[in-house]
Amino acid sequence: MKKTNWKIIYFVILLLFVPKRALAMHIMEGFLPIEWAIFWWAVTLPFLILGYRSIRSKVRENPETKMILGLSGAFVFILSALKIPSVTGSSSHPTGVGLGSILFGPLAMSVVGSIVLLFQAVLLAHGGLTTLGANAFSMAVCGPFIAYFVFKGATKLGWSFSLAVFLAAAFGDLGTYVVTSVQLALAFPSEVGGFMASFSKFAGIFALTQIPLAISEGLLTVVVMNFLKKYNLGELKFLRVLSKEAR
């Protein structure tokens, strides 16, 4: 794709997603106590280092995978930038991490997802810099690992490729929200009931909206993956998403 086309897509995204603050699953700037913000940064940093090495290794072996890696990043950016109002007065969004997790593995997505979250924090006021570590851990670390292992598990059970992709994307989405609820509950335990009461409260805020979103993300990921399977079969075999005998 020409650079001009990428610039057009970039400015369209900026026009569609006007910066605004909202209570969403990206934890907003300044919301976490400083000790928790530092803790999640420390936990996330090793995954970023390992993820960078993973990406460098794959791209060095097969430079043609750069385009698919870019597609995975764009997929995460667009889906996770959507702010869909929920019945609780908050907002939720898909995550898009399932696609890249299946293609490149969870470590690579820790880097891709963190870069996406950084751009959203700076350009869209969605999330924040101090809370970037916490947001990256839930969406760019835990979500991808869940998606990856669900995909591998479904594949080993002999389930169809499309079903494995659907389940991976859907559970990766839901898993991100569960981890974020845990993070908020740890930082703000309830005076009555402690962690569990607080976790139930935070998780319940988004549950009604997120289930259909996870299903929708799963279906969309299947469509994109089948497109790649049709036109980028060689790259999928190199990335070991498909066996060498697949057609």
Structure description:
With 247 residues, this protein is mainly α. The protein contains 9 helices and 2 strands. Strands 1-2 form a two-stranded antiparallel ribbon. Helix 3 runs antiparallel to helix 4 (97-104), helix 4 (97-104) packs antiparallel against helix 5 (106-123) and helix 6 runs antiparallel to helix 7. It is globular, with a radius of gyration of 18 Å. The two termini are 26 Å apart. Residues 7-23 have low confidence and may be disordered.
Task: Summarize the SSE layout with pairings.
Blueprint: H1 3-16, H2 34-61, H3 65-81, E1 84-85, E2 91-92, H4 97-104, H5 106-123, H6 132-156, H7 161-187, H8 194-231, H9 233-238
Antiparallel strand pairs: 1-2
Helix pairs in contact: 2-5, 2-6, 3-4, 3-5, 4-5, 4-6, 4-7, 5-6, 6-7, 7-8
List keywords for this structure.
single chain; 247 residues; two-stranded antiparallel sheet; mainly alpha; 73% helix; 2 strands
Cα radius of gyration in angstroms: 18 Å
**Helices and strands, in N-to-C order?**
HHHEEHHHHHH
What helical percentage do the residues reach?
Answer: over 70%
Distance between the first and last residues' Cα: 26 Å
| Low-confidence spans | 7-23
Helix/strand structural class: mainly alpha
The number of helical elements comes to 9
Strand order of the largest sheet: 1-2
> In percent terms, what proportion of residues is strand?
under 5%
* β-strand number: 2
Q: How confident overall, as mean pLDDT?
A: 85
**Spatial shape:** globular
The major β-sheet equals:
2 strands, antiparallel
